[in-house]
C-alpha cells in the first residue's frame, strides 16, 4: 500500500492536516515530529521539516528510510519571480533546482551540482496532473502555474537578486526547501511534487505583502493537499 509523505513548511498547514487525519503514532526523529496515520483511507506521514535545505533534505531522507514513503508532497509558500504569477496563486513544480549551488570556480554553470547525473530534479507527471486537477476544483478563485521552482538558503527580497534568479534559472518562484526535498526524492527513487502558494513578489515589497497574505496562501495549500490525497 502507498505511504504518502507530506512535508509542510508552515505550521498552520501541518497542524490542519494533523487535526484532520487519524493519527496512529507520533515519532520524533532529528527533532522533527512525524505523525503517522490515515486520511481519506490513505496511509500518510505528516511532518514539519523546519526552514532551509538541510532540514528539508534530512526530513525527506527520514521519510524514505524509516517510513518507506512511496510519494512525497512538499507544500509551502514562495515568492513569485514572474509578473504573471500573483499573490495567492499556486505553483506546481515541473522540476526544482538549487540556485545557490555555485561551483563556477571549477567551470560549472550556476546551479549545477558537480558529479551528479542531474541538477534539476523532475517532478512526477502523475502527481503534477493530480495537483492541477485538484487545484482547479478546490481553488477556482486563483491561477495555477506549472514550472520550475528554485530553492536556496536565502530569503529573496531584492529586485536585483530577483531579476538575476529569473534570468539565470527561469524559475517561476523561489523558496528555501523544495529543491533539497526533490534531490533527496530523486536519489531514493521516490515520486514527488512541490506545491507553493505565492505569498509575496520576492522584491522590496515582501515585508508588506507577507503578513497580509500568509493565511490566504496557507488555506489554498491546505485545500489542494486535501483534495490530492483523495486521488493518489
TrEMBL record:
Keywords: Amino-acid biosynthesis, Glycosidase, Hydrolase, Methionine biosynthesis
Enzyme Commission number: 3.2.2.9
Enzyme class: hydrolase
Hydrolase as UniProt keyword: yes
Annotated Gene Ontology cellular component terms: cytosol
Keyword flag Amino-acid biosynthesis: yes
GO biological process, one term: L-methionine salvage from S-adenosylmethionine
Single Gene Ontology MF annotation: adenosylhomocysteine nucleosidase activity
Domain Nucleoside phosphorylase: 3-230
Pathway: Amino-acid biosynthesis; L-methionine biosynthesis via salvage pathway; S-methyl-5-thio-alpha-D-ribose 1-phosphate from S-methyl-5'-thioadenosine (hydrolase route): step 1/2
Top-level taxon of the source organism: Bacteria
CDD domains: MTAN (cd09008)
NCBIfam families for this protein: MTA_SAH-Nsdase, PRK05584.1
Cited PANTHER family: 5'-METHYLTHIOADENOSINE/S-ADENOSYLHOMOCYSTEINE NUCLEOSIDASE (PTHR46832), 5'-METHYLTHIOADENOSINE_S-ADENOSYLHOMOCYSTEINE NUCLEOSIDASE (PTHR46832:SF1)
Protein name as catalogued: adenosylhomocysteine nucleosidase
Provenance organism: Catenibacillus scindens
Amino acid at each position: 500500500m502507498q505511504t504518502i509523505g507530506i512535508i509542510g513548511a508552515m505550521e498552520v498547514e501541518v497542524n490542519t492536516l494533523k487535526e484532520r487525519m487519524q493519527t496512529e503514532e507520533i515519532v520524533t526523529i532529528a527533532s522533527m515530529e512525524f505523525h503517522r496515520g490515515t486520511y481519506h483511507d490513505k496511509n500518510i506521514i505528516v511532518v514539519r521539516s523546519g526552514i532551509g535545505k538541510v532540514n528539508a533534505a534530512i526530513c525527506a531522507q527520514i521519510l524514505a528510510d524509516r517510513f518507506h514513503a512511496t510519494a512525497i508532497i512538499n507544500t509551502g509558500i514562495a515568492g513569485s519571480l514572474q509578473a504573471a504569477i500573483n499573490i495567492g496563486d499556486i505553483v506546481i513544480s515541473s522540476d526544482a533546482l538549487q540556485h545557490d549551488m555555485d561551483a563556477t570556480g571549477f567551470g560549472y554553470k550556476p546551479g549545477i551540482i558537480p558529479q551528479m547525473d542531474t541538477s534539476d530534479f523532475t517532478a512526477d507527471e502523475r502527481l503534477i496532473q493530480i495537483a492541477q486537477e485538484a487545484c482547479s476544483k478546490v481553488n477556482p478563485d486563483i491561477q495555477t502555474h506549472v514550472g520550475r521552482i528554485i530553492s536556496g538558503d536565502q530569503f529573496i527580497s531584492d529586485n536585483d537578486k530577483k531579476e538575476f534568479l529569473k534570468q539565470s534559472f527561469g524559475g517561476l518562484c523561489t523558496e528555501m526547501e523544495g529543491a533539497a526535498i526533490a534531490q533527496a526524492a530523486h536519489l531514493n527513487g521516490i515520486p514527488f511534487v512541490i506545491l507553493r502558494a505565492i505569498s509575496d513578489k520576492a522584491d522590496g515589497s515582501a515585508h508588506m505583502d507577507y503578513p497580509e497574505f500568509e493565511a490566504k496562501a496557507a488555506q489554498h495549500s491546505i485545500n489542494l493537499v486535501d483534495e490530492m490525497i483523495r486521488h493518489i
